[in-house]
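As a warm-up, study this chain.
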Amino acid sequence: MLQQYFITAYDFTDSEALNRRMAARPAHLEGARKLKQSNNFIIGGAILSPEGKMIGSSLFMQFQNEEELQQWEKEEPYVTEKVWDKIEIKPFRVAEV
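Now compare it with the structure written out below.
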């Protein structure tokens, strides 16, 4: 059984943060599509400020083990391109309703 995770990641807040996000976004979304095909990506999207600006991300993901999760995190464009500043990863279980 795959281990599920709830991931909350908040962007850096410097003046170039949004520009880095937008530059890394195509690679981030392409990675998410591949993770969806491999059944690792459950659902995810941007966290928005009250003004509607993207300021972070929330993801529900699943992996065989902790090593796969760590490998994804190492290769995630929003990590490698310094978009996400604070990342919180918690074990999770999607309710079957």
